[in-house]
């Protein structure tokens, strides 16, 4: 678990508390599932496994933090995230690496400033993505959404999938 110290009015620290909670919650869920169920299908058509969802969240941190906020070259194969498989230990390590890298990518964070890296064409007209603060909140939005998705996935897998 990572601790973030909050100063009054510090948006970055406040959002990082929630980012950490989302990531820590995901890790708790995959640890509960264990290696035997982290790659188990849900029974839903085109449903994702727990491993794939957490792997995708690492990709979210890499793209939005590395590419858009830090303008760092990245290598990401988004489609491969949804085909990935592995162990809980691999996810724990991967989340640790991406959490640390995301924090490093925020070293020059300036909430009201425009993102320093390029946005995708499809994101250019999204008002909420015009500032670094907006990007940071979008990252949390994605993690929170996928945390809920992961919990539902774990419930389905634990219950034996859909009949």
UniProtKB/TrEMBL annotation:
Q: Matching Pfam families, A to Z?
A: MST
Q: Under what name is this protein listed? A: DUF664 domain-containing protein
């Amino acid at each position: 678990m990572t601790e973030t110290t909050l100063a009054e009015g510090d948006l970055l620290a406040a959002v990082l508390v929630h980012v950490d909670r989302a990531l820590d919650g995901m890790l708790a869920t995959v640890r509960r599932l264990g290696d035997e169920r982290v790659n188990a299908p849900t029974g839903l058509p085109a449903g994702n496994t727990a491993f794939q969802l957490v792997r995708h969240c690492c990709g979210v941190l890499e793209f939005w933090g590395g590419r858009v906020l830090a303008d760092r070259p990245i290598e990401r194969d988004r489609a491969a995230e949804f085909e990935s498989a592995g162990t809980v230990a691999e996810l724990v390590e991967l989340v640790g690496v991406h959490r640390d890298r995301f924090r490093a990518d925020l070293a020059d964070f300036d909430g009201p400033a425009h993102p320093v890296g390029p946005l995708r064409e499809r994101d250019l007209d999204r008002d909420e993505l015009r500032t670094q603060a907006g990007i940071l909140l979008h990252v949390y939005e994605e993690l929170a959404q996928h945390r809920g998705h992961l919990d539902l996935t774990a419930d389905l897998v634990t219950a034996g999938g859909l009949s």
